[in-house]
Q: What sequence folds into this?
């Protein structure tokens, strides 16, 4: 009798185990929406032979048709190159496939310059042909390989397998933020390094990226050691010393910096347990000025230290992260949506203006007085408003917000086409009849992505071909005026093609500018906006419907 009972128990336990295993397997399978993300994609094995790139267009054609070779250790998703739609430029039709190939070659040129002259360092000077490191990365010799981390997911998305593998292998072996002895920017470390590692994990499922991300998160948490829990701007990983910049309104914390940690730390918390919710709660409670969030806050007292409000520098990504946190949460983070809509309503009433020439722009607000200018950074709001439009439940408001996005997208376009180079300045003004143009000292272009980013969203969400045409024109201008032997460099003066270069290939050029341009010419199912949300460095993070990576697209052998 006891034997029978034992056998019955064994059977029951076995059945329960089988049910549990089945449930686990099913939970790890991609959902139908995840399958749709790459509905036009295919898993193909890519050749490792770098010599095959001598005839790159033919090589790429072969790859996109499913070419395979031996000694391949990575399985990747890549588009079929069916050319798709067309983009018109200089009265000739350019296929989407041709546009993608062109942008992919730009990525290769940028990558190869970095690899040849600055491998393992942060950035490259493509004219001087040597390594370069901004102070935000902990100074020279920090060894954080910013370009590598920032460009990693772009390489993956573009199907540049050889380059992805060499970056992946280098970072797995060498990346260690804890040994940096200089001061890092908390904000830049979060969006570039933490965001880059988290995105690589989300795309590939490789667990060593979690370990790297956790080490970065642990270091960044030291910056929160303040009386209010609002982090300071600068951090020394080795000593743990934290500080704010003296120029930031007397040593204040910056809204765009401490307010732009949520996407990364939310995803990190899903896989490790860390959280930064206290920042959001404090900003929700604190009294606003006419519904507006000033750019500076004391990390000691938790009070505002000025009245400057901007959708550009110092403020921009705070607003971006409110709406994107709502998207990331699969519309469950209602606090983020409420805070976003309340402040955007205030911005729309108090800061959105139309120039005498009919150009819509978002002015800056200082002590109750409008400054009629708009920065290149502020052009990110085109994409933000486009995303808001698709989330609005009121059709009339959705239409109004999309119109606003398109009008500002046109204004940002005017800042480009009114220059000799076809590229836009750092800041442009609406204080004279000569609108959407810069003044002396603010007419450079440092390979920024925000304008192309806005047009990418407008193309994805409206389907109007004009936005693809604008992206293509901007990419052609970058190729013509910014390309150097060792990569790409910014322009000193967009109004003077012979005005010289700044000789810096910014890591965000690979992370953002080229990625958004490339995705403009792919099918919308590739890094679908239904499944992914981009952080402010264009690193895609999954919308959190499940507590595991969206896809396992890379398999190591």
A:
């Amino acid at each position: 009798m006891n034997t029978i009972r034992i056998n019955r128990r064994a059977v029951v336990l076995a059945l329960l185990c089988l049910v549990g295993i089945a449930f686990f397997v099913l939970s790890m399978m991609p959902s139908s929406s995840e399958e749709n993300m790459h509905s036009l994609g295919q898993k193909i094995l890519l050749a490792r032979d770098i010599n095959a790139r001598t005839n790159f267009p033919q090589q790429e054609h072969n790859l996109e048709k499913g070419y395979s070779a031996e000694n391949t250790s990575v399985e990747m998703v890549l588009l079929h190159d069916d050319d798709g739609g067309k983009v018109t430029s200089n009265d000739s039709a350019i296929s989407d496939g041709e546009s993608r190939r062109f942008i992919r070659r730009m990525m290769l040129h940028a990558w190869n310059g970095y690899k040849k002259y600055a491998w393992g360092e942060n950035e490259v000077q493509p004219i001087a042909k040597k390594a370069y490191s901004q102070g935000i990365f902990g100074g020279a010799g920090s060894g954080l390989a910013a370009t590598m981390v920032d460009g990693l997911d772009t390489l993956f998305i573009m199907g540049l397998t050889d380059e992805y593998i060499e970056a992946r292998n280098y970072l797995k072996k060498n990346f260690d933020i804890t040994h940096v002895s200089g001061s890092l920017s908390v904000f830049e470390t979060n969006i570039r390094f933490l965001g880059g590692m988290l995105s690589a994990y989300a795309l590939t499922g490789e667990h060593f990226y979690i370990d790297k991300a956790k080490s970065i998160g642990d270091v960044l948490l030291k910056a929160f050691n303040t009386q209010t829990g609002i982090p300071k701007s600068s951090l020394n990983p080795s000593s743990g010393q934290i500080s704010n910049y003296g120029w930031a309104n007397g040593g204040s914390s910056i809204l765009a910096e401490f307010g732009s940690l949520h996407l990364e730390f939310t995803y990190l918390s899903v896989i490790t347990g860390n959280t930064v919710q206290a920042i959001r709660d404090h900003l929700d409670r604190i009294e606003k000025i006419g519904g507006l969030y000033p750019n500076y806050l004391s990390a000691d007292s938790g009070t505002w230290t000025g009245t400057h409000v901007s959708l550009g520098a110092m403020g921009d990504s705070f607003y971006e992260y409110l709406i994107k946190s709502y998207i990331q949460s699969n519309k469950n983070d209602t606090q983020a949506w409420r805070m976003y809509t309340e402040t955007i309503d205030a911005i729309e009433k108090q800061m959105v203006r139309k120039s005498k020439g009919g150009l819509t722009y978002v002015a800056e607000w200082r002590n109750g007085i409008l400054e009629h200018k708009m920065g290149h950074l502020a052009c990110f709001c085109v994409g933000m408003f486009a995303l808001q439009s698709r989330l609005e439940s009121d059709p009339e408001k959705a239409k109004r917000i999309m119109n606003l996005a398109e009008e500002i997208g046109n204004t940002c376009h005017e800042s480009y086409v009114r220059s000799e180079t076809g590229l836009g300045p750092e800041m442009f003004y609406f204080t004279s009849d000569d609108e959407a143009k810069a003044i002396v000292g603010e007419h450079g272009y440092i390979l920024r992505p925000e304008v192309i980013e806005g047009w990418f969203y407008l193309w994805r969400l409206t389907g109007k071909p004009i936005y693809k045409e604008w992206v293509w024109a901007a990419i052609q201008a970058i190729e013509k005026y910014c390309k150097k032997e060792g990569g790409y460099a910014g322009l000193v003066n967009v109004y003077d093609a012979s005005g010289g270069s700044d000789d810096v290939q910014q890591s965000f050029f690979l992370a953002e500018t080229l990625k958004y341009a490339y995705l403009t010419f792919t099918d919308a199912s590739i890094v679908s906006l239904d499944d992914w949300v981009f952080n402010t460095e264009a690193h895609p993070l999954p919308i959190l419907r499940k507590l595991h990576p969206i896809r396992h697209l890379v398999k190591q052998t």
About this structure: Residues 1-30 form one domain. Residues 1-75, 547-557 have pLDDT under 50 and may be disordered.
